[in-house]
Amino acid sequence: MSDRQPVVVSCIELHHIRLPYVHPFETSFRRETHRESILVAVRGGDLIGWGECVAGSGPWYSAETMGTALHVMAGYLVPRLLEAGAVAAHDCERLFAPVRGHPMAKAALENAVWDLEAQQAGHSLQAALGGRGDRVAVGVSQGIEPSISELLDRVAAWIDEGYARVKLKIKPGWDVEPVAAVRDRWPDLALQVDANSAYVPEDTASLKELDHFGLLLIEQPFHHDDIVDHAALQAEMRTPICLDESIHSPLHAGWALKIRACRNMNIKVGRVGGLSAALRIHDMCREAGVPVWCGGMLETNVGRAANLALASLPNFTLPGDISASRRYYHEDVALPDFELNADSTVSVPQAPGLGVAVDRARLAAATLHAETFRTRN
Ligand code: NPQ
Ligand code: MG
């Protein structure tokens, strides 16, 4: 955008919050009833940009936790941002590069700068990123349930609500049977599965059974850092393999594309270190002819708004894990809530910046711990 101006950050707030889920969420690695998250506020002039850190309560999905993110932000990233003077969103990656790892901590701050910069320029985050269109196709991610009948009831409810794409969480012992039951009842449903790294290469025969259900993709069956074994699996499967956990950066995306480890990629802003990195991965995949979609981390409306803007880029051709707000939370900390449109889409905010406003009373009610940092002088 030609009217992009750098911002001078004067103050940064970190809010560690905890929100109850509407329904417990179970993956191959863990069952949870609450989401912990860190909301980051970055002040420049009279404006405040917001970002969400999607690290977990513990090191289950990835190595990052609330504790590591707070430590790395407070001790290393926040001081760099406060001492940087004028910064553009595009500078944040370079500013944070001396800190190794911790992509979710970096993304939270970088995304807050993107929001601030877009607000200052008076345009939406979507416009800043180069996205198009007023809505994006979305689906719902359905956790593991205690029984097949409870799973079928939940899927029926999503379809009634209008979701046209469903993702089922799977693990060894909860795979072919639930997938067959859902496929049997809804032969035409757009369906995909996510193993969150619960399988090993010796399980290849049972994974190949999933090739017969017309799935859109099979997400991250193998080790959370593996690329090579996934390449061997993809060569043996008709269904596209999609990498999630293993893609930590544009460099990892390049490696995966080079050895054809996946025919599909899930982009999560937090996992890859921020919106700039997400944009580069999007472009790399587009050049390689690999479709992408926007993953979800059970974000509040702050992270959801950023995901919607990102998912409006042209190579996001599959529905995102960006459900309506009420799929996860009764009372989000930012407003307005996002609703599901009748065509299984969610509308992309068009107001300046993220297009959502944090409700300070709701934020305070959800806060476990908050810290404020200011420039010296
Ligand atoms: C995925 N998300 O695609 C993730 C997994 C996930 C919507 O399926 C706390 C922190 C809870 C991270 C639950 C979806 C989480 C989490 C699920 C990540 O693999
Ligand atoms: Mg996943």
What do you see in this structure?
- There is one protein chain.
- With about 375 residues, this protein is of the alpha/beta class.
- The protein contains 13 helices and 17 strands.
- It has helices at about 65-80, 90-95, 105-120, 125-130, 150-160, 175-185, 205-210, 230-235, 250-260, 270, 275-290, 300-310, 360-365; strands at about 5-10, 10-25, 30-45, 45-55, 85, 135, 140, 165-170, 190-195, 220, 240-245, 265, 290-295, 335, 345, 355-360, 365-375.
- Strands 7-8-9-10-11-12-13 form a 7-stranded parallel β-sheet. Strands 4-3-2-17 form a 4-stranded antiparallel β-sheet, sandwiched between helices. A two-stranded antiparallel sheet has the order 1-5.
- Strand 10, helix 8 (about 230-235) and strand 11 form a beta-alpha-beta unit.
- Helix 9 (about 250-260) runs parallel beside helix 11 (about 275-290).
- The protein starts with 6 loop residues before the first strand and ends with a strand.
- The mean pLDDT is about 95.
- The structure holds N-acetyl naphthylalanine and magnesium ion.
